[in-house]
Design a protein that fits this description.
This protein is an alpha/beta fold. It has 3 domains: 197 residues, Methylthiotransferase, N-terminal domain (Rossmann fold); 238 residues, pyruvate-formate lyase- activating enzyme (Alpha-Beta Horseshoe); 61 residues, Beta Barrel (OB fold (Dihydrolipoamide Acetyltransferase, E2P)), CATH 2.40.50. Helices cover 33% and strands 20% of the residues. The protein contains 15 helices and 21 strands. It has a 6-stranded parallel sheet, sandwiched between helices. A 5-stranded mixed beta barrel has the order 17-18-19-21-20. It is globular, with a radius of gyration of 24 Å. The structure holds 5'-deoxyadenosine and iron/sulfur cluster. The site of iron/sulfur cluster has 13 residues, from helix 4 and helix 8.
Length: 517
Amino acid sequence: MNEQQRKETTKIKQSNPGDKKSLKEKTSEDFAKFFETTYVAPSLKDAKKRGKEEIKVHRDFEIPEDMIGVGKDKKFYIRTYGCQMNEHDTEVMAGIFMQLGFEPTTTTDDADVILLNTCAIRENAENKVFGEIGHLKPLKQKNPDVLLGVCGCMSQEESVVNRINQKHPFVDMIFGTHNIHRLPQIIREAMFSKERVVEVWSKEGDVIENLPKVRQGNIKAWVNIMYGCDKFCTYCIVPYTRGKERSRRPEDIIQEVRQLAAQGYQEITLLGQNVNAYGKDFEDMKYGLGELMDEIRKIDIPRIRFTTSHPRDFDDRLIEVLAKGGNLVDHIHLPVQSGSSEILKLMARKYSRESYLELVRKIKEAIPNVTLTTDIIVGFPNETDEQFEETLSLVREVGFESAYTFIYSPRDGTPAAKMQDNIPMRVKKERLQRLNQLVNEQAAETMKNYIGQEVTVLVEGESKNNSEVLAGYTEKSKLVNFKGPKSAIGKIVKVKINKAKTWSLDGEMIEEVAEVN
Ligand code: 5AD
Ligand code: SF4
């Protein structure tokens, strides 16, 4: 923690804000007055600033002495919303809980500490979290000793912290994305002082390498390669909630992947909000995602993926390395957001329809069998029918095999939120429906081509709907269901496809694959 963050780290003494009103009667002004001396709110305005200070790497995380064993006979429960980055942060927090002596539990009913690791990307993501906080109120009333915490991206927004202060005073802890390594101290405050703890840093901290992790499974693993995002697309809250771009050193990443390989993991996904900017912040060397992938592909692990890509920084070196194939899967998720150059400009994506298509051409030339998937936003301010048609035509032209599609959701503090949100919801919904229909058609079309083909499937477990059936994914991320022995779980097997649905394939297992490279 640097000096500034030390100053920012403040706790709220909320149990007695110094007046006689009940919590229900207090207004936001009451809270604001009370917080003035003891509380520094997260500020999106501060979060926007990109300082030049050098990012240091720390390897000195440890559990404070007085917290060792504090979780004995206690259980923790973390509910995760949003992207893989959040899922991975949850793995780190689970690791810290375990080091404190807590055990995990799968329900809120018997948990001593409950954390909601939240997502701020769209309004409906936030509404889900507020709904859940409301559901947890009776549990808190029944058992006031349970500690309830809100962390993740939503905590980085002052509006969210204010709303929790006003409407959900039973929340015990609020902390953000930049200080999850402070979890032991935050829990200590909340446990022993019985006062609400708010500790949200507006600005990112250094990179901490030796945080513990409890991974969700033993088949696939996420490996962070960088934190933050400096792209500032006009609709997106992430550069504010996740801070500036900070890359992990290649040797740390490679060591982590090697360890995972040694532990038997079959698939690694390299994670970052904008992985193509990997290494741009290194001052001592020219080293990007291409170089990193070129080293990681030599590690003996069957599948390597990465997410998420920004087309702007997707360079020729990376394409050249991906074309080497082997354990680098031939599936690239390449968010386009819109097929209209005018809308892309309003979004500040810093590429045009033409340059995106040129990138796709280069990728297809180098990796002829590549599968491309994408993210698309419909109903961005001022999007005309014609511009939306351009998105449909781009989806056809590229031949995306699937897409995550979203209705634009204004996020407070972003430049787009100041634009007039002038597309009626009815039109947004119609556009989304038409887009989804096209994406579904293309997905179904691709799936049909698999009938009669053999695919290699990394078996993840029993199918959700039928315990008799196993389920797993191909290199191209197609879900495959088939009958097979439970011993195949965690392995890569060959399956012959006999039936295609829009989003999954059915088949028969042929054999186990010892080597895929
Ligand atoms: N509204 C709707 N969708 C959004 N996304 C990001 N911000 C917004 C927003 N304000 C989508 C983008 C991004 C994906 C993770 O979420 O498509 O790629
Ligand atoms: Fe949601 Fe983005 Fe935060 Fe991930 S980084 S949880 S997608 S807001």
